[in-house]
Write a structure and sequence with these properties.
- By secondary structure, the protein is an alpha+beta fold.
- The chain contains two helices and four strands; from the N terminus they run E-H-E-E-H-E.
- The chain has helices spanning about 15-20, 65-80, and strands at about 1-10, 30-35, 55-60, 85-90.
- A four-stranded antiparallel β-sheet has the order 2-3-1-4, with helices on one face.
- The radius of gyration is 14 Å and the shape is globular.
- The N and C termini lie close together (about 10 Å).
Length: about 100
Amino acid sequence: MKAIFIAFNQAYNDEIVDLLERHGQRGFTRWNDILGRGSVDGDPHYGSHAWPVQNMALLTVVDDGRVAPVMEDLRQTDQASRDLGLRAFVWDVIENY
């Protein structure tokens, strides 16, 4: 099993949940109102007057066979609207109960 951590512009919220559902992925944990700045490019998302946008983050644990298709759809989503910002990371799940 793998964990996929997704940090994204709050405008993507429904789209990310729908993407997971299309891949048969029901479970996830989401954090709202995440502040930050990308490591490569893009504007800061600080929720302030100067930088009003905020992010969300989502963690989902998936079977190994679902990782590549989910990540590919996330890449395509990011490429379609680069200015919004979306990053995803895959981690090994060592234990699950």
